């Protein structure tokens, strides 16, 4: 009975420690970073809330079969084949964006939780499922528009303040 209690306690500690934020961020991940000698400075939350961008999207597969993972996102989260998420070089993490495929008009809301793409000319990487929903999985690349919907999660979540429009007749 003591062995079972000890095993249960150990398992609880392991599971709870995996829920902590491995990246050490509290609210938003906005600290500068360097990849392959290139320095990146993520934008402040206030600026990001009103950010839109047009450019090339690509997709990447960081997931694996049956939950075995080759790596984690910048936020320390695992990516599974069924996730809809993406990576951006300078938006605060996490954030929610609306991505519009400008070649076919398809749109998708997704959570950004990783850094990248680090290939010149690309502005966002998305998971395979997101690429399929935006209908560019077979092509690999497409032109998109990104619009920030919110920055942060939980009590840190912030949305842009939109002006209310009134119609007068």
Automatic annotation (TrEMBL):
Membrane topology: Lipid-anchor
Signal peptide region: 1-20
Keywords assigned by UniProt, alphabetized: Cell membrane, Cell wall biogenesis/degradation, Lipoprotein, Lyase, Membrane, Palmitate, Signal
Broad EC category: lyase
InterPro entries cross-referenced by the UniProt entry: RlpA, RlpA-like_DPBB, RlpA-like_sf, RplA
Subcellular location(s) per record: Cell membrane
UniProt entry tagged with the keyword NAD: no
Residue ranges of every copy of the RlpA-like protein double-psi beta-barrel domain listed in the record: 53-146
Pfam family of the protein (one): DPBB_1
Xref: PROSITE patterns: PROKAR_LIPOPROTEIN (PS51257)
Transmembrane segments: none
Listed EC numbers: 4.2.2.-
PANTHER family membership: ENDOLYTIC PEPTIDOGLYCAN TRANSGLYCOSYLASE RLPA (PTHR34183:SF1)
Family listed: Belongs to the RlpA family.
Family annotation (NCBIfam families): rlpA (TIGR00413)
Job of this protein: Lytic transglycosylase with a strong preference for naked glycan strands that lack stem peptides.
Name of the protein: Probable endolytic peptidoglycan transglycosylase RlpA
Name of the encoding gene: rlpA
């Amino acid at each position: 009975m003591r062995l079972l209690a000890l095993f249960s306690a150990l398992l609880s500690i392991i599971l709870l420690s995996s829920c902590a934020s491995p990246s050490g961020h509290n609210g938003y991940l906005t600290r500068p970073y360097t990849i392959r000698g290139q320095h990146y400075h993520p934008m402040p939350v206030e600026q990001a809330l009103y950010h839109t961008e047009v450019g090339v999207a690509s997709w990447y597969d960081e997931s694996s079969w049956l939950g075995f993972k080759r790596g984690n996102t910048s936020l320390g989260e695992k990516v599974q084949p069924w996730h809809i998420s993406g990576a951006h070089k300078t938006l605060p993490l996490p954030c929610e964006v609306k991505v519009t495929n400008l070649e076919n008009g398809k749109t998708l809301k997704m959570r950004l939780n990783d850094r990248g793409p680090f290939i010149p000319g690309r502005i966002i990487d998305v998971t395979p499922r997101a690429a399929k929903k935006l209908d560019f999985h077979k092509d690999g690349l497409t032109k998109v528009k990104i619009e920030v919907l919110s920055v942060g999660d939980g009590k840190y979540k912030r949305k842009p303040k939109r002006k209310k429009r009134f119609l007068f007749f």
